[in-house]
Amino acid sequence: MLNVAVITGASAGIGAALARHLGRQGYCLVLAARRVSLLHKVAKSTGTEVEVVTADVCRRADVERVRDAALRRFGHVDVWVNNAGRGIVRRVLDLSDSDVDEMMAVNLKSALYGAQAIVPHFQERGRGHLVNVSSFLGRVPFVAQRSAYNAAKHALNALTANLRMDLRASHPDIHVSLVMPGVVATDFAANALGQEGPPPASAAPAQTAEEVAAVIAEVIAHPVPEAYTNPAQAEMARRYFEDVGAFEARSAGCAPGSGPAPS
Q1: What's the CA gap between 253 and 85, in Å, rounded?
Q2: 240 is known as an active-site residue
Q3: From first to last of its 263 residues, what are the pLDDT tens digits of the chain?
Q4: What is the dihedral of CA 219, 222, 226, 227, to 10 degrees?
Q5: What's the rounded Cα separation, in Å, for the pair 111 and 98?
Q6: Phi and psi for 69 in degrees, rounded to 5?
Q7: Catalytic: which of 113, 149, 228, 240?
Q8: pLDDT digits (tens, 9 = 90+) for 55-87
Q9: CA neighbor of 138 nearest in space, from 86, 97, 175, 182
Q10: Cβ contacts of residue 197 below 8 Å, gap of 6+?
Q11: How far apart are CA 218 and CA 86, in angstroms?
Q12: How far is the C-alpha of 162 from the C-alpha of 166, rounded, in Å?
């Protein structure tokens, strides 16, 4: 039987790299994003059978349309990757209602819509894998200008854990994974809400989108509850929770934009 994966936010960056990676592994793909011309370019680069769906994942009906297109084309879905996301350059006291609403819609509600669309299908099949792409800043939120982005990814982390616990006893073959990238060399920072001019350079070393995609593919092949894409992030998270005050004091000396500003 064909392995079928759905990837949102697949027109560039991590989503596009993951599409190419899974295509090389023989997956059939359903790629969703708003930029249809870029989606078609990514589809041609995967070397596999692809369904392209133009969708705004902030709209529940669009997400359900992605699911329906996948089932119509391939008959089933094995893996659903909620990858769409957007950053922000606003400190807490500067946030507007619309800033917060957009961050929650793109980074949290889109993943909720994806889960609610596909998990019932997984339950009918008795198996499946949902992967939510979060951020290291959803665990250690010390880049202040990311503010509402950090908050939305924190919420995504919690929602992912809650769903995993909901399904653990009744559906042990449905996996729910959280993947947390740090700094990634994509256009994510340049496209952040409120970004003016080129984003500041990060002091932290960046991973490539391909490196992050390889970690996600490994999580798909060997499901785990959570994965940091950079092994050093696990140690940073441990130090953060061990003594938040000390961690924040050390981080306060970092230049603006330094630290894990994820893609």
Answers
A1: 28
A2: no
A3: 799 999 999 999 999 999 999 999 999 999 999 999 999 999 999 999 999 999 999 999 999 999 999 999 999 999 999 999 988 999 999 999 999 999 999 999 999 999 999 999 999 999 999 999 999 999 999 889 999 999 999 999 999 999 999 999 999 999 999 999 998 886 655 555 565 555 555 556 789 999 999 999 999 999 999 999 998 999 999 999 999 999 988 887 553 343 443 44
A4: -50
A5: 19
A6: -65, -40
A7: 149
A8: 999 999 999 999 999 999 999 999 999 999 988
A9: 182
A10: none
A11: 24
A12: 6
Q: Domain spans of the chain?
A: 4-251
Q: Which residue has the tokens 């008959």?
A: 75
> How many residues are recorded in the chain?
263
Rg (CA), the chain: 18
Which residue type is seen at 1? M
Query: What is the distance between the alpha carbons of residues 81 and 223, in angstroms, rounded to a whole number?
Result: 13
CB neighbour list of residue 45: distance below 8 Å, 6 or more residues apart = 16, 19, 20, 23
Name the 3-class secondary structure at 26. coil
Place of tokens 């560039």: 12
Q: Which residues contact 20 (CB under 8 A, 6 or more apart)?
A: 42, 45, 46, 47, 210, 213
Contact yes or no for 126/187 (Cβ under 8 A): no
Report the topology of domain 4-251: Rossmann fold (3.40.50)
Report the candidate in 186, 226, 220 with the shortest Cα–Cα distance to residue 26. 220
